[in-house]
Structures are given as structure tokens and as C-alpha cells.
Amino acid sequence: MRDRLKLSGASMAGTTDAQDAHREEILDLAIGPVPEWGTGCARDMIATLRSSAEPFPCIFATAAANRGGLRFGFVDDLDDERTWSVLPDILATYLSVYQSISRNTSLVVFFGSGGETVGEWTDDILGYERRFWSLLRYLHDSDGEPWPSDIPTDTDTPGWEFSFRGTPIFVVCNTPAHQRLRSRSSPVFNITFQPRWVFEGLEPHTPRGAAARRTIRERLRRMDKVDSTPLLGSYGDPANREWKQYFLRDDASVPARCPFHADSAGGDVASVGPVVAPALAQAEDAGPRADRNTQIRVLDAEYNPVPVGAVGELFIGELFLGGPPLAWGYLDDPRRAAERFLPDPFSPVPGSRMYATGDLARFRADGEVEFLGPVDRLDRQHARTTSPAGRGIR
Questions:
Q1: Residues 63, 101 contacting (CB under 8 angstroms)
Q2: Which of 28, 297, 364, 373 falls between 20 and 30 A from 244, CA-CA?
Q3: Is there a contact between 297 and 316 (Cβ–Cβ < 8 Å)?
Q4: 130: DSSP letter
């Protein structure tokens, strides 16, 4: 027993030395402060990307890990938008130096769970999807430079790419909710930013580019339990839409429409579809259902307007006419606020929100809103905990 204790003590000392060395390595690669939980996140990702036992599919990321091209950033709380304020600075700092780092470079930003914690599975796949697109819209709203003139603002074109500070960037999100799509699985929610510059000379018509894509697809087929390769197009290909590769659901599906859009005039976040369905327009000024500064929407699980008579969840969004009438969240309860006050993809106003009431409803043919009771979330992994709002409006 004494010998075992001595061995354990030596092992612990060695472990401490190794941890210190890892932390020093991560500090050198970090942009901004590194929280206590951050070192382990970055260390584990580097180990995953360098693994020869199960080669990671994205050979561009593995090259960055092997050649010192990775950089890391950390945000304290995925669910607290107040902590997101560091994200634009992290990305802007990286973009100011990335070409001097390596041709093989990526920025990975990890998001904690608040209170110096990390790795808690706080949402289902659709919840994480909403967070991801909210973060991209937040970055866009925070960007002090105009949208690049050579990048289309319409997401439904082959040349569109998310851009920040004038730089086109390929974006990938990994979450704890990805289980079958293992190439997108991570114990900690993170977003990888890869400047389009990284892929220059690796176009699909080049020998290196064609070989890289064959390797990526083969590794994906071995790693994932569902086939995501049909969605993995090549930038500029007429049939490709880059946004579809940013966030894949666990069944390798994507929304019918891109949740992000920048308009051509001012680069502001704009509607990804009609602002209101015909029944919504009819209901907009109808008695107690809404005042002139609000809209009532009935949306399906993917946040698309449902036809008249179809059942969906009731959302109340604002037009911001004469000032914002809708609150931004619950006081001192950011997690609850993030679940209820969602980015409004139908508003032309940057940063606008819509409130998820938690009620099922439908528009009748006469424009009246019929309430059908609370949303049954028991069959979902994640449930909202707030009480349904807006009852009595009929």
C-alpha cells in the first residue's frame, strides 16, 4: 500500500506538471483570457484533431492542429448574451493576424455554461441551432465594417459566405447534442471560424482540392452514423449553399430557409422570408390581439409561418415602431430569457426579438387567433419552464 501511495504521489506530481505545460501551451494560443475550464477544452480538441486512431474528417483543421495554426477564444456563458460582448473582439483580433499565423489556421471559440462551469448539456439540437444563428447575427450586428462588396448578401446564392470585418469566413458549429453526427459532436458548444483565404488553391477542380474532398468524405462516412456528405458542397458551385454546412442537425438535415440574412443596402439583418403571412397581416391591427407596435405570428417547429388553420406555437414579435415595446428578457435570469426571447428572423430591424408564449394556436379563416393550450414539450429533450403568456386574447 505504501509503495502504491508513493507511485500515486509521483503520478500526481507528473500530472500537475503536464497540466501546467498544457495550460502554458493554450495560453500561447489563446486570444483573450482563458477561464479555468478553457484549458481542458482546448487540450481535448487538439488531441482529437491530432489523433491517428480515428482521423478527424476536416483535414484543414487537423493541419492547423499539427502545424500550430489553431487559435482559441472563450465566452463565459452561451445562454447569457451579456457575456457575448467579448466575441466580436476575439474574432476581430484573430482576423487582424491570421495570415501571419499559417496558411493552415482556424479560430475555435468555446462557450461555457456560466459560473465557471462547462460541458453541461443545456439544450436540444434545435435549441443549439437557435443559439448558433443568434451568435452569427450578434456578430453581424456588432460588425463596424460594411459587408464585402464581392460577397452576395442573398444567402440563397452560391457565392454567399458569412463575413466579418470585410473577411469571408467558413463557419462550423459542434455541440453536445450531436450524437449520431459524431464529426459535429463536442462536449462543449463551440464554433470554428476558417477564413476563406485558407481554402485558396484548394478549389474542387484542383488536384489538391479534389484529393482533400475525397479524404474528408471518406472519413465522414467512417465516423458518422448518418450520411452528411450530400450537404457538403463546394464554394461557388451553382448548386451549393454555404450556410447549409454551418450547422447540421443530428440527422444531417438543415432548415428549409437560412436563419441569417444580410440585406444589400446597409448590411443589416433582414427578413429571411415574408414578414407576415396573409392572415398575420389581417390580424395585425385586430383589437386586443396586437397593438400597432407588435405582430402576432404562429410558427412551426422550424420557425416558419404556418398556413391559416394549421396548428403552431404562438410568438409575439415587435415592429419597433416608435420605440421597442417588447422587453429584452427576464431580469437576472438570462437562461430563461434566452429560451423565450428569440432573435426575430422576420424583422428588418437589427437585434429585434420575438417572444415565445408557449401556447399552441392557429389563425382562423376570419383572422381570429384561436388558442389550443400550452405546447406539449414532453416529447422533446428540452422544455421551457416559463408559464404560457398571452392567454385571454381571442
A1: no
A2: 297
A3: yes
A4: H
CA distances from 251 to 99, 130, 247, 363 (A): 35, 16, 11, 31
Domains of the chain: 31-245 (no CATH), 278-374 (2.30.38.10)
What sign for the dihedral angle of Cα 90, 92, 93, 98?
Answer: positive
Cell digits of residue 264: 444589400
User: Does the pLDDT of residue 38 top 80, yes or no?
Assistant: yes
* CA–CA dist 324, 341 (Å, integer): 13
Cell numbers standing for residue 362: 392557429
HSE-up of residue 208 (Cα within 13 Å, Cβ side): 7
* DSSP H or E segment with residue 171: strand 167-174
Half-sphere exposure of 249 (CA within 13 A, CB side): 11
Is the Cβ–Cβ distance between 328 and 379 less than 8 Å? no
The answer to whether the beta carbons of residues 386 and 339 sit under 8 Å apart is yes
How wide is the angle at C-alpha 251 spanned by C-alphas 262 and 202, nearest 5°?
60
Rounded to the nearest 10 degrees, the angle between the axes of helix 59-66 and helix 38-50 is: 110
pLDDT in tens, 176-226: 999 999 999 999 999 999 999 998 887 878 888 788 888 988 998 999 999
34 or 235, which is more confident? 34
User: In this structure, how many other beta carbons lie within 10 angstroms of the beta carbon of residue 216?
Assistant: 18
